[in-house]
Each structure stands twice: as structure tokens, then as C-alpha cells.
Write a structure and sequence with these properties.
about 60 residues, about 10% strand, disordered N terminus
Length: about 60
């Protein structure tokens, strides 16, 4: 049983650490946006406001 708990904890994705609540809100709005042009504008805002954040595409989501 302990093995199952360890494997379950290991399989969980690491939690994202946002710089502040505004970054989290911007990230969430990017994921929810369906208009491609608006999504690009939001991504550019993120890039300008958080230039030191590293992110990469993962399917249709962005991760870091």
C-alpha cells in the first residue's frame, strides 16, 4: 500500500509557482480565450510583464 501512495505522489505534475495573483489571472485568461488574435495579445502581455518566466507549449497548454 505504501508503494501505491509513493507512486501516486510521484505521478502528480509539479505545481506551478506564479509570481503573483496577476500572473495567475493572466495565465488563466490565456487558457480560456478562444479567439486566436486575443490569445496572442494576452501572450504578448504575459511576455512583457513577466520576461523572466520560462514557458513552453505542451499540446494546447503552456507549462513551465
Amino acid at each position: 500500500m505504501a508503494t501505491v501512495l509513493v507512486l501516486g505522489a510521484w505521478a502528480q505534475a509539479p505545481q506551478k509557482n506564479y509570481k503573483d495573483r496577476a500572473e495567475y489571472d493572466l495565465y488563466a485568461s490565456i487558457l480560456k480565450e478562444t479567439n486566436g488574435q486575443k490569445k496572442l495579445e494576452l501572450l504578448n502581455q504575459w511576455k512583457e510583464k513577466y520576461p523572466t518566466r520560462i514557458f513552453k507549449p505542451s499540446g494546447s497548454r503552456f507549462i513551465w
